[in-house]
Amino acid sequence: xxxxxxxxxxxxxxxxVHLRDSEAHxxxxxxxxxxxxxxxxHLEPFVRSRQAIDIAEGFAEGQVSIHQLQExxxxxxxxxxxxxxxxxxxxxxxxxxxxSEKLSILGIVRTISWGSTYASRDxxxxxxxxxxxxxxxxxxxxxxxxxxxxAWLTDTVHALATGIYDDRTFDxxxxxxxxxxxxxxxxxxxxxxxRGPGPHVRGCWALDLVLGKE
Length: 214
What we know:
Layout: H1 3-8, H2 12-19, H3 25-40, H4 50-60, H5 66-81, H6 86-98, H7 105-118, H8 124-139, H9 155-167, H10 173-182, H11 188-195, H12 205-211
């Protein structure tokens, strides 16, 4: 895969092949959570399992214990036994994958597969495009790696980035870009991404870079 292929690719499986050796487990888990949100967050009976996705995200961030994760797996599996509607059941199945203690590349591929095949509000092609964009949002451009200059990490930049991440106020990312530029950041890839339309989610490569997250 070339850089041009990476930027234009709308097939998440092809992007995954290029990323298969990445050990960024936190990013993989956050990506899976975003895929599952697209499947089930708008389905009313799925509301009881939204907490499970929050737990999966918390585990990715090191804020949730393995014991809590395992308990959530059991709750999701129990809920699945009481569900016969196909789309909801598949959303719960994908949730269970996200809650797996050891998330493998295969698990990610399966999650994408379920999301693409059973999404009810968009076409399969739309879902594949969404997942491809999410992968680029979270992993950035491996052909053009960016480094964070410590001089750019002013108190203002750090406070803005932390608030945006904690509150999920990604609409404020352009403000962060302005603060970075004022601090001397001249990296167009980073600034343009923060000012771009997204989608922006937890795991955003540029925001992670500012916060020192892997």
